[in-house]
Amino acid sequence: MRTIPVLSLLLLGVVSTALAQQRFQPSDSPDVTVTVQSVAPGANLFFAANGNDNNPCTQAAPCQTLSKAASFIYQPGATINFRGGDTFFGEFYLTRTQVPSGGDVNNPITIQSYGGGRATIASNQDGVNNGNKGPRNWAVLLDSTSGVVLQDLNITANGKYVQYGIVIQNLAGTWAPADYNQQLAAGMIHNIVVRRVDVGGFGVRPTPGNWDAFEAGAQLTIAGYFVTSWGCGPIDNVRVLDSKFHGNDGVASLAETGINVTNCLTVWNVVWRGNEVFNIGGTPGVAVSGNGMVMTGVVNGVMEYNHAHHNANNAQGCGGPVGIWADNSKNITIQFNEVDHMHVANWGATGQQCDVGAYDFDSNVFDSVMQYNYSHDNDGPGWLLHGNASNNTVRYNISVNDGLRNGPAAILNINGGGLSRFYNNIAIGPSAAFQLAAYSYKPGSQVANNILITTGLDSAGRWFGGGPLPGADISNKDIRNNLYFNTVPGVAIRFSNNSFQSDGLASTGT
């Protein structure tokens, strides 16, 4: 990945009022105006398409609309039930207006389908395009409430330009330094679960140049930056499980991201497990778009058993996307995932190269592990480390037929200048090679015990085994015991540094 326009770690504490006014206006989002009435603790409320809002909202006499659902004050333990097979138009809100208590981590409020099949929440309005930075609107907003379960629902943009499918944020909290106890005292919310949902079609109007990165459409966003106004309320323990996130128009769908976290360094303990992300087509004018899932500003994150596939960058420039990745984060584990068919629509149109890879630890990722992942048939490399990412380990991964269009087709693109340990990985493809960017690598960095099997040659008919780009200092890289094998007969291996020439075993097929 290239550098992306998010606030750095050093700037988070000194964000100017002018910047806040420029990027996040409270008027960017629709107002939430409801008249609320209390319901009993643990109440079960039911809604059906043929219900009536004058009913008592029981299963025998259900209510009808999402606005009615937003009119209650809920106690912990309540369930909000939408009849399976029915469609409910509009936006669903669960905020401090509906839950003044702030919720209970041990007694969650559950939003779900009942009866046969799933209910659908379908947006019925385009967003407000305010100052060419929108629209900022959503189908489901979970705000400032601990102990929430959202499950067994379909959520769709319904052909409208709706920026977010599901938003999780904490407007009741305030920004605090990246310390758990300080953020706990600043009004942290906890324990939000999203599972078995199908979310699709969320993006923005196709007008190039009108959005910043990570503001151009996500199927689910954990909003470190508030979506509704400026601020950064801390959030802890969010799990997204066994769900689907996608565009609704194939790989050309205008959507920036499947799942993301926006960067305030106020999001802790996030797990994304068993999800499928596909047909995220990117947004014109936003180069770093078309991502499957990305954690930004997370401490302690796990992305495992997910499948990101058939996502693309439809922007005119390059710099992304990647299937599963993290930046500005700490203690991230990416494991047991599959990423395939990451594609860029305009390769080389601007004279640039794109990443369009499978997995990435990007800028300011520390103390993280990428392991036991599979990637195949991607335009870019299987694995990347970029910028000042440091103290990261990449091991036991398999890449097959990646690097289909990325310059010299480097499968292992080790761009980070920080400490990295890269060992026991297997790459098979045209041409499987290490590429070390122009950095001075820290002591303890390692490239060892990897197997690279190349199935093709570069544009000059050569087999490139690996090495650093001009200007790189790899004196601190421990490069040893790697196996290089070329399946193309009669072509000698080429390295760009003696450290690689003397490394391991190289062989050419006959």
Description:
The strands form four sheets. The protein has a 15-stranded parallel sheet that branches. A 14-stranded parallel sheet has the order 5-8-11-14-17-20-23-26-30-33-36-39-42-44, with no helix packed on it. The chain has a 13-stranded parallel sheet with strand order 6-9-12-15-18-21-24-27-31-34-37-40-43. It is mainly beta and 510 residues long. It is elongated and about 80 Å long.
Radius of gyration computed on alpha carbons: 24 Å
Oligomer: single chain
Low-confidence stretches: 1-34, 128-135
Rounded average pLDDT? 84
Question: How many strands, which pairing sense, and closed or not: the largest β-sheet?
Answer: 15 strands, parallel
**Count of the separate structural domains:** 2
Helix/strand structural class: mainly beta
Total helices: the number is: 4
Instruction: Tell me the distance between the termini.
Output: 37 Å
Q: What is the 3D form?
A: elongated
How many β-strand runs? 44
Helix content: under 10%
Strand % is: 35-45%
Keywords:
510 residues, mainly beta, 2 domains, 15-stranded parallel sheet, 14-stranded parallel sheet, 38% strand, disordered N terminus
